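Exercise: predict the fold of this chain.
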Amino acid sequence: MSTIYRHGNTLVVPIPPQLLTSLQLAEGAEVAVVLDSARGQIVIVPIDQPTGMCQVLIDHWCPATV
């Protein structure tokens, strides 16, 4: 469990290092923070470094047509 705290004008949620390691992320990694209001969740998604894009955001704003 983590506790949200304020650091200047930002709210911070500590992430255990082992979670970052398992996702092949490190301190300073670029991520997108997405609100899933339907599920009541905040989702943190890595941004693809070569493209600078986040597939979750692309899928949300530009859903594939069938």
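Check your answer against the key: Residues 55-61 form the longest helix (7 residues).
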